[in-house]
Amino acid sequence: MSLALIFISVLLLPDLYILLAFFRRRRWWWALLHEVPLLLALASAGAWMGGVSAQWPGQLLFFVIVCFSLPKLVFSVLSLLVSGVALWAPQCRKPGLYFSLFVGGCMLLASVYGCSLGRHQLTVHQQELHFSDLPAAFDGYKIVQISDLHLGTYGHQTRFIERVVREVNAQNPDLIVVTGDLVNIKAEELVAFQSCLSQLHARDGVMTILGNHDYGTYGRFREADGQAKNLEKLKRGERALGWDLLLDEHRFIHRGTDSIALLGVQNIGAPPFPKMGSLEQALDGVDSHVFKILLSHDPSHWRMEVLPNSNIQLMLAGHTHAMQLKLGHWSPAIWKYPEWGGLYQEGDRQLFISTGIGGTIPFRLGAAPEICVLTLRK
């Protein structure tokens, strides 16, 4: 109920205020033009809540709220404050109104940028990771990590993902890892991208894990076992790409007489995200003295289980997306995740979090899609 009230307030109250304050003496079609975003939002909200399985209603609703409703809300609040100040200082009314328009306009431009150019500004994040116990043969070993592609958000538009593949291959990696959330909901999202993703190439191959979205938890399926079938279809699809899907398993990578263990678990996260995997099972058969790298989608897993219950030296995660919003080195993701992006250390134990490529919503502002190039150093 509270969420519904917030939703209605954000959508309706700013429009009502602006109509009454600025459009009462204008022609009716000006008012109607002003309300087009609101009408689009209500239509998409109705389609979404009415059970439409396509992703466009939710994406359109998000676009309207971020690009129009929130700037209107900020403008309305500032305008009301200006009106209050103007009761005692009338000379402040016009400059205050211009300031309100400026702030609202900046928000609109930033939001439109995030929904268009911002989500395609691909970056390459270079990071060296130093370990005293790294086997000497792996000094300089290069891992390229990509995460959270959320392919369904791109529909059938493959150009950006093709660019990601070219850039990953250009790094000449020893190993490529994909740390979950390949799709939003349905395995069918992968079909349009099979050709380009199969072109990913590294000396030791491509290793991947499942993220919370890959289980189809957030979708509607007609059959009782539809979710389970969808998951199996996605697993087959990833393996058909030539990727090695790790389901609470490990692989050994050898260089001469040296070796490291690469472990991958199914999703293990703090509520409300599911715990599907088993770290104990992934570690079974790996000697304690072996250098270990863990792929685990949710960074919450690091403090929850990895640090207290293992001696894993490095964990690679994704999931947070930095909430797809960064201002400098700050992100609102910190309100939910103590570790939300980049490198973190506890003694000689390290966690690296990729803020990802895509997202269920087509928006990125400041938190550019990233390819992470991780070089191991002794």
Give a quick summary of the entry.
The chain is α/β, with parallel strands linked by helices and 378 residues long. It has helices spanning 2-22, 28-34, 36-49, 56-86, 93-115, 159-170, 194-197, 226-240, 279-283, 300-309, and strands at residues 123-130, 142-146, 175-179, 206-209, 244-245, 249-255, 258-264, 291-295, 314-317, 342-346, 349-353, 370-377. The chain has 2 domains: 2-115, no CATH class; 122-377, 4-Layer Sandwich (Purple Acid Phosphatase, chain A, domain 2), CATH 3.60.21.10.
Q: What structural category arises from helix and sheet content? A: alpha/beta
Low-pLDDT runs of 5+ residues are none
CATH architecture of the largest domain: 4-Layer Sandwich
Strand content: 15-25%
Compute the number of helices.
10
Q: Tell me the name of the CATH class of the largest domain.
A: Alpha Beta
How confident is the prediction overall: mean pLDDT?
91
Compressed to H and E, one letter per element, the order equals HHHHHEEHEHEHEEEHEHEEEE
What is the radius of gyration computed over CA atoms, rounded to a whole number of angstroms? Answer: 24 Å
CATH superfamily of the largest domain: Metallo-dependent phosphatases
Q: Would you count the extended β strands for me?
A: 12
Number of domains in the coordinates? 2
